[in-house]
Design brief:
2 copies of one chain form a homodimer.
Chain A (H helix, E strand, L loop, with lengths): L14 H9 L3 H12 L3 H15 L6 E7 L5 H14 L4 E6 L2 H4 L12 H5 L3 E6 L11 H11 L4 E7 L3 H9 L2 E6 L12 H6 L2 E4 L7 H16 L11 E4 L8 H18 L1 H27 L2 H15 L5 H14 L2
Helix pairs in contact in A: 1-2, 1-3, 2-3, 2-7, 4-11, 13-14
Protein name (chains A, B): ArgK protein
GO cellular component, one term (chains A, B): cytoplasm
GO molecular function (chains A, B): GTP binding; GTPase activity
């Protein structure tokens, strides 16, 4: 009977039981907890909050790795290969993957090519397609919260897949320990259009699909990126950022990439920087939660929403400028209790 | 002597004179006004506000066009060709371009290939590289404010170049009338990874570099995108969204793209939707200004910043969770006067 309970969350289990399940490594409970965290329903938000409070006290930390790049850069096949390598080294792995179904939910647009099929079948891996992971803008803390759940569940490595250039990467950098930027052979031209930000936050660059006829082009691209990295200051003192040639098809460069990542973590651990970084991640979560909280308080206050409607009408009628209107609304929000 | 005045803004001219200059079509005054709008200096912010208040009362509107796509999709060469076409049709044009210098400011990384060289030389065009235009996340209203200045200066067409997939496009959609998505030949594969959002907000798709050997591939890509658009609901009732084959090199498809855009504006004007959309843009600016204002009020309040430091220390020490800390800070902000 309880299976018929609150849709998508799998029944009326209390937050404490779910939290215990997560911490005990129960995958169903973990999935349920993530659904609650991602939910927009205020009742779910309250449960999610209680689960998160319990999970965070466990104080577990994973190696958090962001894998970023343009659509088509081969992120998901690369993650599948790297994931196999990680598991074969004896680690458990969680992947927060960009959800391709968002494009297909009203019917299949480009077929149903499953993503990370092999990895999904492995019991050591937990793959979660997430609508939010591709779009980290706006300070939404949900991705960060989901990572806390994965850590509490005991996953040793977390891979966060993100799309695009821009705010997403800055957020990914703030909530992970290592940022791997994936680029296609021939994408050296794009350096022109790439905002400096993305090169500054990358801890390594992987040139993907470096196989068959593309090997030479991939090498030239790697040189371009190596030169570009050489002109930027170091991100972590003492760590020279590498450009790796990789191929999910031939397997080339996958072991080397994992070696590069583990070497980086060793370095950070020895210098004490890893612990510092984890503290910074917590501060960054706090900042995101405050921004989110301010926005939520603003939007959920009926008196403010009433005033907002009035001011919008004044602005539309040209009796107030948007600048005057905004001042009035910020003021109104601060004087409410 | 006045030339030596406040650096970057070119001297101590008062806001009223600058506003008059902008409205009178003086390019130097326009450039200075944009610099003030983009400045983080609170003194500049006040001048900028006064200039904007005067400019907005002019009530001028331009055709606002967003051109978006991944790095390397050929946005700047496309905009150069489309810009020539627009000028040859007798219109004045302003372009807010992604600033490539952000990558190069500590020395040339990939040479100094000038962007939009030909267009920059035309007196009918005003090209402004802008650090913010590529990254519209976080509700920053500066790009929108810059467009108000360009409209007050009398530009009939504004092109806003944006990079990436994600939040940037959603913002670009909220502040423009027409969104053109540029894609490379062969990028049909990327449909898999593209969030639905970007396809839903595109009013047309341009397949770039459709010349020479790439023509056949470009045609196949156009079919992929046509099929994808066909599965999504209409963005504007009565407007069938087109996929255009274009080449900045051969000039193919450029006239057609401009024809498509003007046809769209005619349709919107006749139905009254254009006016409605301009009202919505003003509401969206108001929303962005409120978010920005809330964040600014939060960050600039010394008592809150003091409390924030205390709470951050408590969170770092594990005596408060980030969730509890955020609640306390949101509460503290609302109770301050």
């Amino acid at each position: 009977m309880s299976r018929q309970g609150s849709a998508g969350t799998g029944g009326p289990l209390d937050a404490e039981s779910i939290a215990r399940g997560v911490i005990g490594g129960n995958r169903q409970m973990l999935a349920r907890a993530i659904t609650l965290v991602e939910s927009e329903n205020p009742v779910h938000a309250e449960s999610a909050r209680r689960i998160l409070e319990q999970c965070i006290t466990e104080g577990r930390h994973a190696m958090r790795i962001a894998v970023t790049g343009s659509p088509g850069a081969g992120k998901s096949t690369f993650i599948e290969s790297l994931g196999e390598e990680i598991i074969s080294n004896g680690h458990s792995l969680a992947v927060l993957a960009v959800d391709p179904s968002s494009l297909r939910s009203r019917g299949s647009i480009l077929g149903d090519k499953a993503r990370m099929e092999k990895l999904t079948a492995r019991k050591e891996a937990f793959i979660r397609p997430t609508a939010s992971s591709g779009h980290l803008g706006g300070g939404a803390p949900k991705t960060h919260e989901t990572m806390l759940l994965l850590e509490a569940a005991g996953y040793e490595v977390i891979i966060l897949e993100t799309v695009g250039v821009g705010q997403s990467e800055v957020h990914a950098d703030a909530m992970t320990d290592f940022v791997l930027l994936l680029m296609l052979p021939g994408s050296g031209d794009e350096l022109q259009g790439i905002k400096r930000g993305i090169m500054e936050i990358a801890d390594a660059v992987g040139v993907t699909k470096a196989d068959g006829e593309r090997v030479e082009l991939a090498k030239a691209t790697a040189s371009d990126f190596t030169a570009a990295l050489g002109m930027l200051p170091e991100k972590h003192p003492g760590h020279r950022r590498k450009v790796l040639l990789t191929s999910a098809r031939s397997g080339a460069g996958i072991k080397e990439t994992w070696g590069e990542i583990t070497g980086f973590f060793d370095l950070l651990q020895k210098s004490g920087e890893l612990e510092l970084r984890q503290l910074q991640q917590r501060s960054s979560l706090l900042r995101d939660l405050v921004e989110w909280g301010l926005r939520k308080a603003y939007r959920s206050d009926p008196a403010i929403q009433q005033r907002k409607a009035e001011i919008e009408a004044e602005v539309a009628a040209g009796r107030l400028s948007p600048f005057e209107g905004a001042d009035l609304l910020v003021e109104a929000f601060r004087l409410r209790r």
